[in-house]
Write a structure and sequence with these properties.
Blueprint (H helix, E strand, L loop, with lengths): L2 H30 L2 E2 L2 E2 L22 E9 L8 E7 L73 H10 L19 H14 L24 H9 L26 H13 L12 H8 L12 H13 L3 E4 L2 E4 L2
Antiparallel strand pairs: 1-2, 3-4, 5-6
Length: 334
């Protein structure tokens, strides 16, 4: 046998041995590797699960992808082979080839009392931020809807339009259209309960003061969808029944189907923004509230108890006054 043939056979045997070792190593590794939800737990970079719960959505160090990308040098000659990062949960770093996977912060658009960022005015893109009171950026207890109302062509005042928008943005009304809002209709007491409870919760950020325990004796036949708000109106110190009986621990009537009077509306609004239930009695019980609201809203706003005037009055109290953020929510500055 010639020396050349002998060297050739030795090369073949050495190559076969290398292939065998590589194959055996791959089989051995695959045998001991466990997949969980399609992600290989034996690989570096499985940044959450059984071993690494402190990082949440951390991603650690990537594994090396078997595919490679050739990047040639400036002269167009032979390039160097750069391996692409393979990240079990996606590559969130600045490059696919930097040996890092990066980190993703878990975010959500849902905003609740426990999860709301301040500075919401800067995030609005559709609604004119000028309709809002900047004092309320100090704290936000509910999300603000960034969607414009629809003017349906019915006759409404210019003062009503920003009021309607404010109510719609704060989810105090579900009606987007100016006609659908029914601005000329009067409110019943059970409807007013919902309106005022939502204003207390979603704008003023109030929390309940009392626990309802059947203080109202005449609400069994109230609208089922409004019944929870009637009960909450007691808990938020909005309505305490005829003669303020509920506040004194005396069962009393609520009269859910009666229209709420102008005087009652004024009193309720002032109690809300001041967070003070100071029940007055006698023939002139409403005098204090009328005088107070007259100095805190535009004079022509609150003339009766139709929905458009209620909307404008709430908006005036919200917009043209100063508010402080306190432990109980927003309080008007007297």
């Amino acid at each position: 046998m010639s020396l050349r043939n002998q060297s050739f056979k030795q090369s073949l045997l050495l190559g076969a041995f290398v292939v065998f070792i590589a194959s055996a190593t791959g089989v051995f590794a695959a045998f001991f590797r466990t997949d969980v939800n399609g992600v290989r737990t034996g690989e570096t970079g499985y940044g959450y699960g059984y071993d690494d719960v402190t990082h949440g959505y951390g991603y650690g160090t990537p594994t090396i992808d078997s595919s490679s990308s050739s990047h040639s040098g400036g002269g167009g000659g032979g390039g160097s082979s750069v391996r692409r990062d393979r990240c079990a949960n996606g590559d969130h770093s600045g490059s696919y080839y930097d040996g890092k996977c990066g980190t993703v912060t878990d975010t959500t658009d849902e905003k609740t009392e426990e999860n709301v960022e301040t500075g919401f005015l800067g995030k609005l893109k559709n609604v004119d931020v000028k309709i809002f009171n900047k004092d309320f950026e100090k704290h936000q207890c509910y999300a603000v809807r960034d969607e414009k109302i629809v003017n349906q062509g019915n006759s409404v005042s210019q003062g009503f339009l920003p009021a309607h928008q404010m109510l719609y943005s704060y989810y105090l009304t579900m009606w987007r259209g100016t006609k659908d809002f029914a601005p000329e209709r009067r409110l019943t007491r059970q409807e007013a309960a919902k309106f005022m409870v939502e204003f207390a919760r979603k704008v003023l950020c109030r929390t309940p003061n009392y626990k309802y325990t059947n203080q109202f004796t005449d609400i069994a036949n109230a609208n089922p969808t409004l019944l929870p708000y009637i009960k909450q109106s007691y808990e938020y110190k909005i309505f305490h029944g005829d003669g303020g009986g509920a506040s004194k621990g005396i069962p009393t009537t609520f009269r859910p189907f009666d229209e709420i009077s102008y005087d009652e509306l004024v009193a309720v609004m002032i109690r809300l923004v001041r967070n003070n239930y100071d029940e007055t009695t006698g023939k002139n019980w409403a005098k204090y509230y009328k005088e107070y609201i007259g100095s805190h809203i535009n004079k022509s706003t609150m003339t009766n108890n139709v929905r458009k005037n209620i909307a404008e009055t709430i908006y005036d109290l919200y917009k043209i006054n100063n508010y402080n953020w306190e432990s109980t929510g927003f309080i008007i500055v007297d």
